[in-house]
Specification:
There is one protein chain. With about 500 residues, this protein is an alpha+beta fold. Among the domains are: about 100 residues, no CATH class; about 130 residues, no CATH class. Helix content is about 70%, strand content about 5%. It has 11 helices and 5 strands. It has a 5-stranded antiparallel sheet. Helix 2 packs parallel to helix 4, helix 4 runs parallel beside helix 6 and helix 7 packs antiparallel against helix 8. The chain starts with a strand and ends with a helix.
Amino acid sequence: MKNKIVLWGKNEQEEKILLAIELIDKENMVKIHQFPAAVVTEEFNKQLMTSWKNGEEVPFPAEVVTLDRPLSVTDDLLPETILVDRTDVISRAKAEWHFVVLSSKLYELYSSELADIKEKVTKMDEYKSSVWEEMKGFWTKVQQQVYDKNLFREHANNLRKGSDEVFESLKSMRKSLDNEFKAESKKHYENFLGQLDEIKTKIESGKSLQPLFEELKKMQSTFKNIKFTRDDRNKLWNKIDAAFKILKEKKYGKSGEPSASNALGRLKNRYEGLMKAIDRMKGSIEKDLRDKNGQSQQAGRAMGQLEAQLREARVGMINERINSKQVKLKDMIATKAELEKRMAKEEARAKKQAERAEMDAKKQEKKEEIKQKIAKESKSAVDPAEAEKLKKAAEQIAESKKNKNVIPPIVAAVTESEVNPAAEAISPEPQVQEEEPAVVEEPATNEEPKVETDGEDSIMDKIEDAIEDIGEVIEDVVDALKDKAEEVIEVVKEAAKEAKDNIDLAMNEEE
């Protein structure tokens, strides 16, 4: 964009003149040099068209008439006494030069602000993060103006060069401070490691767990108030978290929780974090709306078209930022509804698990009773010698059916031993008279003699009951494995969803 133009025109006497018009942007003024046609040679005209327009010095003839005229948005660039054929060139120069003046003022404003920051950095004895943030904010404003093409390339390069110098000075100060900070962080890191090793030793030696919990909590509070490097902080936090998990396992078992469902607890923690993020997002949108209203009000008081356009562009950017945040807020609210639904499902699952645990306890109690009963009754079961006698009696009864009405003596012996426990031992040989066999009359009821075998029958019944109980246990184990598989799938889905939400939340907080 040139700040000099050359063209032919006429003065108020209708005399042909050559006009050389230049913008003095720092003074917001236009110089109009008038050369009579009689003194304008071909060589001089060429010098004006090339060298002078490109910023080189060209000697003017003595007949030149120079007119200073302020640049105004409302007034014409040329006085009424001067007429030109190319009025379009004059109109375009007026519009462009007005922008040049505004851009130059903006450059001067930024140059002054940069000089103040440079002076502040020069007087600093040590690095200050507040000055670094101030410099970052300044450079962000400059970049935005360059992106919007409100600054010329030369001005933008000058500001960039000055900003680089300030950043280099701040980086040099920060490097020295970082070395001191790393050494201090390492010192605190080693101190905490020693305390953690001491706590682990106490855990392994079987010390009381509750005091160790309190000691770890105190250490965690102290840890949060100490500045560490990112690497030291992450490593130390993982070690403290691992120590808490070991203590929880010692106190509550492998679940690490006293009673509530782990999945439900994680969902509740995630829900609480999401609610805080929603509140922050709403606050951020409200802040943007206030900023938008402020920019709109300032746009109404803008000094010139350029400033008004700059304000309008800023309002447009704020609108886009608000729209983006509203979309993210909508997603957060949808996630909130989903979490509420999943929490209700997990609560129902936890209730079902509690009922199942109670039922399993009752079953276990019943099985223990059956086991004790079987053990007790087994002691009073039939003596093995008596069981052998009963078996032989049963065989002889089967044989007597063939011989009809002959009662084996062993049956009589068994019967007698049941009636009279003091009876003498029965000889296994049948006592039969030599002359004629003893015949026993058939009972009137025509019933066969019975042999008591209640002991064997009761043992078989108990074995069958035990087999049925084992079958029930197997079914319970299969059901428990199915439920556990469902819980594992839910936990995996939840972990994936939680990772995605954390990324979204982190991006929202950065914005």
